[in-house]
Amino acid sequence: MEAILLVGGQGTRLRPLTVSTPKPLLPTAGVPFLAHQLARAHAEGVERIVFATSYRAEMFEAAFGARAHGVDLAYVTEDEPLGTGGAIRNAARALTCGPDDPVLILNGDVLSGHDVRAQVKLHEQADAAVTLHLTEVDDPSRFGCVPTDDQGRVTAFLEKTPNPVTNQINAGCYVFRRSAIDAIPENRVVSVERETFPSLIESGATVMGYVESGYWLDVGTPEAFVRGSRDLVLGALTSPAMPGEPGERLVLTGADVAPDATVGGGATVGAGAVVEAGATVIGSVLLEEAVVAEGAAVRDSVLGRGARVGPGAVLDGVVLGDGAVVGPGNELRHGLRVWPGIELPPTAVRFSADT
Ligand code: GTP
């Protein structure tokens, strides 16, 4: 089976990490995020993938070449970003399958453990135009929701609302009949969510919902990105691309962790990164050459390439851009992001028990 992988987004919610590296190439559990997706797609029977690229397009071919993780790869770049539907239509130029064949569409920022073969089987049994993977979430008010009838047919695509009619949401993995892709308008911006799916439903085409609620995560925010990496390291989702066995931590070759430092909770320490004596790193992602100095504590945070956390500093839920420096004694929390190359001086005030 062939697939199209959408990887052209700018990843604005993950800035500043995505200033230098597109979101799908950010190291996640030690390898580019897409390595997990390619390896899983291969395990699900996908033989060829067309990358729909736009933002920093050249970096994808440089990273994966013509074949990786058992899958043949092709690259199609948009001159201007065409949105999800426009990108699918544009990338279809490089497909080799026939008009009735199923084509899998993957989002380049979703980690999913669902059964793709079962999704394709439902699509073929129903002779559908499109079959969407739907997942059930606890709080559907944060998403648009996708109701289905008792035959599993999608009845509507509803925008975010405080009172959703179902807890099923679009999980971002679709099977399209090839001819349904060819019917998307060419050379203009199209959103599958806002335009293609609603108009298919309105026209009476068969759009099926494949409901499966196993492991699923959209890694679009810093918090979710950290969670995805942590879950892969801990083995909550298995990936054939993980370098090493699941465990409390992943320390890559060339990293230097002091014997009395604490590294755990699914943290990854990248090549050339350093965790000094007495430091604590929990559930975080340290990219190459990042440094956590003596006695510092880093939790649920991402440290960009060469970023440095000074002695005794505390980071919780923070993103440091490449080369950013947090001076000794600083305490940064709650989604704070430090842009690449910024240096925060040491704290002038020293806190003690009686201040
Ligand atoms: P944010 O800016 O943080 O919302 O991230 P994003 O740019 O990745 O957008 P979003 O998460 O909505 O995109 C969903 C998927 O579609 C991602 O895999 C994107 O890479 C991809 N995508 C979004 N827009 C385009 C586009 O115009 N062209 C291509 N080729 N892919 C796109």
TrEMBL record:
Keyword list, A-Z: Transferase
Keyword tRNA-binding: no
PROSITE patterns linked to this entry: HEXAPEP_TRANSFERASES (PS00101)
Domain annotation Mannose-1-phosphate guanyltransferase C-terminal: ranges: 250-328
Nucleotidyl transferase domain mapped to chain residues: 3-231
GO molecular function per UniProt: transferase activity
Pfam families found in the cross-reference section: GMPPB_C, NTP_transferase
Family listed: Belongs to the transferase hexapeptide repeat family.
Protein name according to UniProt: Nucleotidyltransferase
Provenance organism: Actinomadura hallensis
